[in-house]
Amino acid sequence: MRLAIMGASVRAAAFSALEAGFEVVAADLFADCDLAARCPAAKMPPDPHAFVRWLAERDIDGWMVTGSWENYPDQMERMAELRPLLGCATDVMRTCKQPIRLVSLFSAGDVRFPETQFTPPPGSGWLVKAISSAGGLGVDDWLPGSPVPENCYWQRKIEGTPIAAAYVAAAGCAVLLGVTEQLIDRRWTHSQPYHYAGSVGPYTLANSRLAEGALAMQLAHAGELLASKLGVVGVFGIDFVLDDAGAAWVVDVNPRYTASMEVVERFTGMNIVAAHVAACTRGELPAHRPEPACYAGKAYLFARREVVFRRLPELQLADIPHQGDVIPRGKPICTLIVDAEEYGDVQRRLQQDAKRLESWLFADEV
User: Fold this and answer.
1) Domain containing residue 77: CATH number
2) pLDDT digits (tens, 9 = 90+) for 81-105
3) Keyword set for this entry (predicted)?
């Protein structure tokens, strides 16, 4: 199968597809050198219409998307008319990004979802969230009396551990593939508050406060609701906050391949894109949830100031810029990847590798 993969950054999904034996053509905002070395990769402008034109010129058997495309259902509808879509139908994409629909769905299904409203709350303890967002962009603490952004809503802030669950669905059923802890508000990544900066997993095996089965049941039920009630198909993700009482609160739904799935692949050994294609084309699902075999993690390192990229070959890197690329302040430099025998070692080693990479890239500061 000749497969097109599109999104803001597609390297992880493209590598998964290549490992599964698919012929891949890719289009994203970076066309980093490790992606371009393994398959045809187009560097695209941040314009969804440009992706539509690109797809129209490709000879492919199907296409799938990664992050941020759920915010462009009109363009996805046009692309689905051009080439076969492997994934959620565009009306499902729209529903998954409508907070009021999610409140109704999860409340009726006894899944916790934070109090949500579309007018500014008078007090604190709320988040203001852009309706069209991904990766934590457009999320901030609400300060009463602040200017009201356009196209936003307010969600009661839930304190706890941010986790992400990965699933695959077909014919109204969903299988939970794995759970990761999200790296958010980690100063050593230089990311902005609430911005996604990486994942570590499997989370359930590392969490001693809860019975693993009890947490898995909560997460599995939420995924089954999306598959059975909304018709979600293929791989998808749900972001949760796990509170101190052990309750998992849904805070976002991502009806497509997600960034944490690369980590799930590493600790389970399963191929996520192969599972996605099997679900979308043949209605097939894995017979059971894959068992973790190790611990793994990834972290995005963001530029604390403008920097010219110089590669450090001793580290395990991905999403690697081209030699000499200028990375503006606040933009992602690359992805650090770690495997370890203990859960606690993963984030520690990611932080160590981030420090080593920064010492190389910012050697002029010494």
Assistant:
1) 3.40.50.20
2) 999 999 999 999 999 999 999 999 9
3) ATP-binding, Nucleotide-binding
